[in-house]
Amino acid sequence: MALGEPYDLTGKRIFVAGHRGLVGSAIVRRLAREDCVILTAGRETLDLTDQAAVRDWFAAERPDAVFLAAAKVGGIGAHGQAPVDFLHDNLLIEANVMEAAHRADVEKLLFLGSSCIYPKHADQPISEDALLTAPLDPIHEGYAIAKIAGLKLAQAYRAQHGRDFISAMPTNLYGPGDNFSLQSSHVLPALIRKAHEAKLAGDETMEIWGTGSALREFLHVDDLADACVFLMRDYSDDGHINVGFGEDISILELVKLVNEVVGFEGAIVHDRSKPDGTPKKLMDSSRLHALGWRPSYGLREGIAQTYAWLEEAIAAGDIRGLE
Ligand SMILES: NC(=O)C1=CN([C@@H]2O[C@H](COP(=O)(O)OP(=O)(O)OC[C@H]3O[C@@H](n4cnc5c(N)ncnc54)[C@H](OP(=O)(O)O)[C@@H]3O)[C@@H](O)[C@H]2O)C=CC1
Ligand SMILES: C[C@H]1O[C@H](OP(=O)(O)OP(=O)(O)OC[C@H]2O[C@@H](n3cnc4c(=O)[nH]c(N)nc43)[C@H](O)[C@@H]2O)[C@@H](O)[C@@H](O)C1=O
């Protein structure tokens, strides 16, 4: 594989690390449309923090390409509960997978970082060049440092060993297969669940965290998965690439949109003991757009699709975080 060349997925053995997660399951859905062999390994068979196990698995399975969507992930309420896990697990996962991929001659690897890598008060919209120009948001600093280390490690494998390892930095994601736990989830699944449960219970109010003034950008996970396949095929360079939606919305406006879609008509109350976090983090995705990719889901359409999926999943008793 020559660096800088397009990568043809046809007939390739492709490992989706983290295949049961929000992103990993979407990448598996998207790859089902390709003529390739999808390899997966659940944590119970392959703990990616175990270097020897990861080396052995790669030596045995010999994937041609890897989507690295496995990580310790959570919303703003989760980071403070497990700062070691967000730093330690993510460092080990990315180091083990990239090292084993190198040893097993993997042709291409895409590492998933996050918009959290950027400074808390970065100029908006946030360009890839904003990396390491100012302090991070202390709330998720460990996770952000692990993600920065991951993109730097991918660049190092490219420089030292000529490995075609690339990095994508997604904005906030949502969609089918998300984590709906009220303690550890991201904001959009939490709001959809709260509105749904308040509607069913006939509640007069629904509680949100913080002031609702923070602004967030949301990309449907099926759009992200499509962007990941696009980048795997058509991007080969050492710079990380922002994968955003292009517009942001205040949490308060988001709540109103969710409640319209779900059909909850009660009032909003605020738990101001919870943080707002980063005030705004709209990414500049113009480099990705210049490569020829754009998202397809609008936010209202994406929330409606996610809620329809949630109702079916609840009926089937198959929801992460609602156990
Ligand atoms: N969700 C979001 O809004 C955003 C996510 N991202 C990034 O996208 C990627 C995927 O995130 P997302 O899909 O939301 O996260 P999820 O928590 O939904 O999925 C993460 C997956 O990684 C697996 N995993 C975690 N630790 C291990 C381990 N030690 N060994 C094996 N597997 C492990 C989990 O397995 P198990 O099911 O067993 O727990 C899970 O399937 C991450 O890199 C994240 O940083 C970036 C920006 C936004
Ligand atoms: C995606 C990216 O960015 C993530 O950071 P974040 O965007 O701050 O996380 P969040 O999705 O939990 O949104 C939090 C915002 O939303 C408000 N908010 C209201 N009500 C609820 C609520 O009920 N739950 C949550 N979680 N937030 C709420 C809350 O007050 C705050 O303003 C990282 O965790 C990290 O995972 C990462 O990679």
Automatic annotation (TrEMBL):
NADP(+) binds at residues 18-24, 112-115, 147, 170-173, 186. The keyword Translocase does not apply. Keywords: Isomerase, Multifunctional enzyme, NADP, Oxidoreductase. It is an enzyme of class 1 (oxidoreductase). Substrate binds at K194, W209, R216, D276. It catalyses: GDP-beta-L-fucose + NADP(+) = GDP-4-dehydro-alpha-D-rhamnose + NADPH + H(+). Pfam families: Epimerase (PF01370). The active site is at Y143 (proton donor/acceptor). The record marks S114, C116 as: Important for catalytic activity. Pathway: Nucleotide-sugar biosynthesis; GDP-L-fucose biosynthesis via de novo pathway; GDP-L-fucose from GDP-alpha-D-mannose: step 2/2. Residues 14-244 form the NAD-dependent epimerase/dehydratase domain. Gene3D superfamilies: NAD(P)-binding Rossmann-like Domain, UDP-galactose 4-epimerase, domain 1. CDD domains: GDP_FS_SDR_e (cd05239). Its EC number is 1.1.1.271. Catalyzes the two-step NADP-dependent conversion of GDP-4-dehydro-6-deoxy-D-mannose to GDP-fucose, involving an epimerase and a reductase reaction. HAMAP family: GDP_fucose_synth. Belongs to the NAD(P)-dependent epimerase/dehydratase family. Fucose synthase subfamily. This is GDP-L-fucose synthase.
